[in-house]
Fold this protein.
Amino acid sequence: MSIRRLEHVIHAMPTSDGAGVKLRRSLGQSQSTRLDPFLMLDEFSSDQPGDYIAGFPPHPHRGFETVTYMLDGHMLHEDNMGNRGDLKSGDVQWMTAGRGIIHSEMPQQERGLLRGFQLWINLPAKEKMKPASYRDISSFQIPVIERADGVWIKVIAGKVMDGEKHVEGPVSGRTTEPLYLDVRLPKGGHFSHALIADHNAFVYAYEGNVEIGAGDERRLLAAHNVGVLSHGEQIELYSEGGPARMLLLAGRPLKEPVVQRGPFVMNTREEIEQALYDYQHGQLV
Ligand code: MN
């Protein structure tokens, strides 16, 4: 059995997006920090309303999927298809922009902590122009495994073994076959998980430090960093130094050219020009 190693680290950089929401951007801070099929990962976490209150007013997307996972707080999604999604602590919003969507994501709180993640997952060329779709997934629809040893796993997408039984997340049937787990380890905790050997995978530590790998190859990943993993059939996560929380993501690489301009992600420059033209002429959606 090949155990995945922590191959390299991408430090999350402070940035802002939307109308001035402060973020930590790890994947997607530059073209060389994508991990096919994952284009971008933002963490937002602040109890200062000035950092988030302006939100993300209406803006377009084409060519990929956005997945928002709220840890704390309350956001409202509205889009051109008439969807209205109230996103609260523990909820997930899985939006497939496809050929085009125009949406807003606005905080519904004037104080308190707003914390969560937005992940961008690419679509294959043949699906980039499919109709947009949108799904709100309430926290109660997302299975959580709470083991006797204190290990806690929320299965947003993909499958996890809990003893003898498979626990499957609410999202399936995607070409990229995403695995999306929120893993929380107590001090001295250990989580081992089988992965498809040639899928790309990374860990994003968001609280505490996690050790990744086995034996001499165990390496520490500190909070607010992406750890990109080598290929292999298994991942081993440890938290010897103290409790730790992390996202574990994996997916099937698309191995297609990526041309991005802001909120549009296509395969060629011409397709990007077309997206801009369509948006400017009210033909995106
Ligand atoms: Mn958006």
The chain is about 5% helix and 50% strand. The longest strand covers residues 38-46.
